[in-house]
Amino acid sequence: MQVYLDNNATTMCDPLVVEAMQPFFSEMYGNPNSLHKFGTASHPALSRAVDQVYTALNASDKDDIVFTSCATESNNWVLKSVWIDKIVNGDKNHIVTTEVEHPSVLAACRFLEENGVKVTYLPVNDQGVVEAHTVKSFITEKTALVSVMWASNETGMINPIDEIGLICKEKGVLFHSDAVQAVGKIPVDLQATHIDFISFSAHKFHGPKGVGALYIKDSQELTPLLHGGEHMGGRRSGTLNVPFIVGMGKAIELATANIQETMAKIRTKRDRLENALVELSDTFVVGDRENRTPNTILISIKGVEGEGMLWDLNNGQIGASTGSACASADLEANTVMLAIGADNELAHTGIRLSLSRFTTDAEIDYTISHFKGAVARLRAISSSFALQKPTKGGSVQECELHH
Amino acid sequence: MAKADILGESLWDAYSNKVTTLMNNPQHQGELFEAEVEERGNKLIVADFGAESCGDAVRLYWEIDPKNDTIVNSKFKSFGCGTAIASSDVMTELCIGKTVQEAVKITNIDVELALRDTPDVPAVPPQKMHCSVMAYDVIKKAAGLYMNVDAESFESEIIVCECARVSLGTLQEVIKLNDLKTVEQITDYTKAGGFCKSCIKPGGHEAREWYLVDILADTRKEMDEEKMKVAADAGATGNFETMTLVQQIKAVDAIVDENVRQFLVMDGGDMEVIDIKKGDDYIDIYIRYLGACNGCSSSSTGTLYAIESTLKEKLSSKIRVLPI
Question: ipTM more than 0.90?
Answer without folding.
Answer: no
